[in-house]
Write a structure and sequence with these properties.
This protein has six helices and five strands, in the order ααβαββααββα. By secondary structure, the protein is α+β, with helices and mostly antiparallel strands. β2 and β3 (101-108) form a beta hairpin.
């Protein structure tokens, strides 16, 4: 009986220590899973039909490889430094070209240049706004009211028609 109790107690200690926040050098991503937050936002606000890209997904096309980075966030051949990122999840829905929708969460390593990284995301949204000038059927409301939040350890953004303030509030509540 004593051995069974000690075994259960040991298992509980191991489980509790596995669930405790990481105090290592990486910041931001220890306590928050960006996949959970981004999928939660999509479910909460009825956003569907797009694709998810995640650092937790190792299936080709499921994460931001060099080609996707260049395609989505590249600027004159430069791409964001993904070595600065500890974890991320991005939702991009371009199925309806007249109503682009996307949002994402990136956790950065200590000392990473968050503003420089965010500049690639902002440049993407600005380029989409500029390109929409040539296509009057595109609803740019989600793009022109996009919300970007940049801290030392996290970047999140949202560009979704009618939901930017709500998704930003959801991220604010669930990312920190």
């Amino acid at each position: 009986m004593k051995k069974a109790f000690l075994l259960i107690l040991s298992a509980a200690i191991v489980l509790l220590s596995a669930c405790s926040p990481d105090t290592g050098a990486e910041s931001g991503s220890a306590a928050v899973d960006p996949d959970t937050v981004v999928h939660g936002a999509a479910g909460e606000f009825g956003v569907s039909g797009g694709r998810y890209y995640s650092s937790a997904n190792n299936t080709p096309g499921g994460y931001l490889d060099e080609d996707l980075l260049l395609s989505f966030y590249g600027d004159m051949g430069e791409v964001p430094d993904m070595e600065a990122v500890t974890a991320y999840c991005v939702y991009i829905d371009d199925a309806d070209p007249t109503a682009p929708a996307e949002f994402g969460v990136f956790f950065l390593k200590d000392g990473a240049d968050a503003e420089e990284f965010a500049s690639f995301i902002k440049a993407r949204i600005n380029a989409m706004i500029e390109n929409a000038v040539n296509y009057p059927s595109i609803n740019t409301e989600g793009l022109t009211t996009a919300v970007f939040e940049v801290t030392d350890e996290c970047i999140y953004y949202t560009a979704v028609i009618g939901h930017n303030a709500d998704i930003a509030a959801y991220f604010e509540e669930n990312v920190k």
